[in-house]
Target: uroporphyrinogen-III C-methyltransferase
Amino acid sequence: MKKSTEKSLFIVGSGPGDPELLTIKAYKAIQNAKVILYDNLINEKILNIADKNCIKRYVGKHPYGKYVPQEEINDLILYYCQNFDHVVRLKGGDPYLFGRGFEEWLTVRDQNINVTYIPGISSMQGAGLNSIPLTHRGVSEGVWALTGMKKDGSLSADLPLAVQSKSTVVIYMGMRKLDEIARTYVLYGKGDTPAAIIQHASLPQQKQVLCKAKDLVRASRENGLGHPAIIVIGEVVNLHHAVSIAMEQRHIV
Model:
């Protein structure tokens, strides 16, 4: 049994935003936290789960705006872990899926600090909340999860490979790259592939638009979509219509 005096860091995924989508383990970690270091995408209702005496330190980044440098976040993690026995690094979605959570684990690995990783529901699974399955037998053979913004600011070099596959393509942090994404699909003769942009998945202010891959920029502008959002491209997007029709027919009956 661990002693209560041992220093512990919990790298916690808070899911797409809805507090009810937290895992039980994540809920308990937040509830018992002495310190929470949280990102820009964290729902305030999730922070309210913590004790009133918990220190809550914002270390997030507004899209393409002001942000706390990763080096400073790493220093803060070390500082709080050395001075408190239950520190939570709270991140949106899943910390190990474009969340830099593993980088933060590496920061404390040699510091005699117990680290617990608690997975979160990835934001790409918000597609299912919008009647778009990421895979479906006979429609999609898999899922490509790509970043729209690499460290150097460029789009993932894997996109041309993904475009030519029979799998669903999900792009994180890609709203600034919609034009490049659309042009890539057109270049490979896949401009008419169904696509969806889903913003604030799982939250009351959620917005979405369905279009063709070649029309991503126009659809985004006409519907006022911005950050944070995921882009889902593939034939599975058309299944949204099948669900809508079925629901309408049920309502009529």
Summary: The longest helix spans residues 70-83. The helical segments are 24-31, 44-47, 70-83, 101-108, 159-163, 178-187, 216-222, 239-252. The chain has a mean pLDDT of 91.
